[in-house]
Write a structure and sequence with these properties.
Number of strands: 31
Helix content: 10-25%
CATH architecture of the largest domain: 3-Layer(aba) Sandwich
CATH topology of the largest domain: Rossmann fold
CATH superfamily of the largest domain: Peptidase S8/S53 domain
Largest sheet: 9 strands, mixed
Distance between the termini: 61 Å
Structural class: alpha+beta
Number of domains: 3
Radius of gyration: 24 Å
CATH class of the largest domain: Alpha Beta
Shape: globular
């Protein structure tokens, strides 16, 4: 097989490494690799003879995480007239007008998602030509990939215009957005001004568009993560390659690129330490780039648990002030009927060492586990079909904290109890557990005592990206399903909140955290036009954009900022220019 075939073949395991590759194919190992940047290499190695993934917990960061589309739901229904209220609330239409006239001219917005329906009028200019610079469809292998890439097919602007002139456009450019997620995001961020804005208007209607359609994950990863077959799931390294592709469209000091991600996952340490997060940071620090990531829709999903163990000390003649039962916590998980299985992650803060006992709905137990530094063990039960694999990493290499992975296959419906305790004297005692995102579960799985905070999805907690939550601009209320901050280790996320409820898209009014990211991407394109294209601050990069927007955000007098829902406030581009005018 050549490297392209290995990249696409389910026979080959995908691995992300942050060190140089010292082994050559001539040494007899069946593998190939792609160098991403000066840190990461993406390796594709024959699965034959390799141990199961759960048997190598120390390699947690090397295993590609799966990311899902942050769902977009139908809102209040389509309206006959276009309603720009979301754009007005964000200060976007105000700066589209003179004297600033900021419409994203000279910028590029890249949407990495499910593709784009390039035939829609909102992606054409007044002459009927496409405003899309390129589409990289990772799922189509019949054409030429982009230069420097090995798989998928790239359709350039000339190809798309030929398709639009054809009676059957998809016979020329066969890339489709079957679910509409990427199309909706692109229309919000950069939809054309139709009928003078009366029919439709995007945040940056003159920005050029690049779209990446991510290919679905390999079957072996879908099986490992127990993701339902009918659900879109994308591999971490494919997203990293998509970001690299988007970055190639930047022309430093002249044509800025705004990269927008409407995908997310609950896998990871929730502190921005995943391979994807670290790679996004490396792009975000470049001049003329900005990265916007949605915070997801997990805030009300009951998929996060936070706890703390308390140390009890014996004093003279009595017991200390705490209750002895505070030295452990019973974490209860409700599992619905006919669940195929799921993964659950436990992250424990240093310096404590945690162990966990398990009780099934039928009363069978797994005693407190004293797992080693890097160990995996599987349990089967007498009266239940469930198999539970527990893998432990005492010091997870990137975060430095303790990680315990649980993989439950065919779990019995009912209440599962995970008793968390400490192996020694308690010092910090803080721990968190996360279940998969809603889309990755085959039936309901929830914590009985869930915590709605620290529910922003990765990679929105990457240090240098602009991670946003969602709110309803019609009444300035926080969107109940939106992910909330802060990060697990206390970093301020979200940066701010943007409209994400009943937002006008090319498909009508829709709701979801992805739309908040799309509006923000359009707003950033406006600011990049003023700063980079028009030469007011040509050295601009993502961190500066973030801090300019923080200063201009709208804030309520009765709230303390930053907070876990709103970050530093509500997106307000015109407010940013008001601040600049007053300095």
């Amino acid at each position: 097989m050549d490297c392209k075939e290995r990249i696409l073949s389910n026979q080959y395991r995908d691995v992300i490494v942050d060190y140089p590759i010292r082994v050559s194919p001539e040494e007899g190992i069946d593998f190939c690799y792609v160098n991403l940047d000066n840190l990461y290499n993406l390796v594709y190695i024959n699965n034959l003879g390799l141990p199961p993934i759960m048997d190598t917990p120390k390699e947690y960061q090397m295993i590609p995480k799966l990311y899902g589309l942050m769902r977009i739901l139908g809102g209040g229904g389509a309206r006959e007239a276009f309603d720009p209220s979301s754009l007005i609330a964000s200060g976007i239409t105000q700066v589209q007008r003179q004297p600033l006239s900021l419409t994203g001219q000279g910028t590029v917005i890249c949407i990495i998602s499910s593709g784009i329906d390039y035939t829609q009028d909102v992606f054409r200019d007044e002459a009927g030509n496409t405003r899309i610079l390129a589409i990289w469809d990772q799922s189509v292998q019949s054409g030429q990939p982009p230069a420097g890439f090995l798989y998928g097919t790239e359709y350039q602007e000339s190809d798309i215009n030929r398709a639009l002139a054809s009676e059957d456009p998809f016979s020329v450019v066969p890339s489709r957005d079957e679910v509409g997620h990427g199309t909706a995001m692109a229309s919000v961020a950069a939809g054309s001004r139709l009928n003078g804005g009366a029919t439709f208007l995007g945040a940056a209607p003159d920005a050029r568009i690049v779209a990446v359609k991510l290919k679905n994950c390999k079957q072996y990863l879908r099986d490992y993560y127990l993701v339902p077959e009918n659900v879109a799931a994308f591999e971490e390294q494919d997203i990293m390659m998509a970001v690299k592709y988007a970055d190639s469209f930047a022309d430093t000091f002249r044509r800025p690129v705004i990269i927008c991600l409407g995908i997310g996952t609950s896998f990871g340490d929730h502190s921005g330490n995943s391979a994807l997060s670290r790679y996004l940071n490396s792009i975000a620090i470049k001049r003329s780039r900005a990265l916007i990531v949605c915070g997801g829709n997990e805030g009300n999903a009951e998929h996060h648990y936070s706890g703390i163990l308390t140390r009890c000390t014996e004093q003279t003649g009595n017991v200390g002030s705490c209750n002895p039962t505070d030295t452990y916590r019973d974490v209860e998980v409700r599992v619905g009927e006919n669940n195929r299985g799921f993964l659950m992650e436990f992250w424990g803060n240093i310096p404590d060492i945690y162990n966990i006992a398990i009780r099934t709905p039928g009363g069978e137990t797994v005693p407190p586990l004293r797992l080693g530094v890097d160990q995996s063990v599987t349990y089967s039960f007498i009266y239940e079909r469930t198999r539970v694999t527990i893998s432990s990493v005492l010091v997870e290499p990137v975060s430095g904290d303790q990680l315990i992975l649980f993989r439950l296959v065919e779990p019995t419906a009912g209440i599962w109890t995970f008793r968390v305790s400490s192996l020694a004297e308690i010092h910090n005692g803080v721990f968190n557990l996360w279940l998969p995102i809603t889309e990755f579960l085959s039936s309901e799985v929830t914590f009985l005592e869930s915590d709605p905070y620290i529910t922003l999805t990765e990679p929105s907690m990457a240090e240098s990206v602009i991670g946003v939550s969602a709110y309803n601009d019609l009444n300035n209320s926080f969107y109940l399903d939106s992910g909330r901050g802060f990060s697990r280790t206390g970093q301020i996320r979200p940066v701010f909140s943007a409209p994400g409820v009943d937002v006008p898209t090319v498909f009508g009014r829709q709701t979801g955290g992805s739309l908040a990211a799309a509006i923000t991407a359009g707003a950033v394109a406006q600011f990049m036009q003023w700063a980079v294209v028009e030469g007011n601050s040509p050295l601009l990069e993502s961190l500066e954009v973030k801090n300019y927007f923080i200063r201009g955000a709208s804030r309520n007098a009765d709230l303390f900022y930053p907070n876990r829902e709103w970050g530093y406030g509500r997106l307000n581009v015109s407010g940013t220019f008001d601040v600049l005018a007053g300095v």
